[in-house]
Amino acid sequence: MTTLNGSQLKIPEIVKAAFLAGTDPEHFGYWGKLESYDQKICESADLALALWISKKWVWNTFTDNERKQVADWFLQVNSLATVDNNWHLFPLTVQLVLKSLTGILRVDIKLKKGSFPAAEPTLNSHNKASKPLSMAEIG
Hints:
Blueprint: H1 11-22, H2 39-53, H3 64-75, H4 89-102, E1 122-123, E2 129-130, H5 135-138
Antiparallel strand pairs: 1-2
Helix pairs in contact: 2-4
């Protein structure tokens, strides 16, 4: 791809530099530490998807240390609390991308007391209340 002045625009190099700067706490372009309920949790999912999509040109060109740096930044989402809505999908997206890139699935789930009451009724196919399925029943 070329710019308006005819010079080559090297998108993979720009994306690679952005990921390395954004995940380096010593760099002025650092994206920052993630906190519970932080908007950056949402953004991390988009960044993870961008990394996954550009795997061939970006992730595969990182050194082992660079991969660790980038993965460590993303791994912050695993232990953070999120808003109880579609935000649960953002850490999941990051985790699945990291699994795809590294082959390792690391999920650190910390449930707050009372988050998922065991006796909470759900509706079955006949719209009758029933108890939730256990993990063994899901299986």
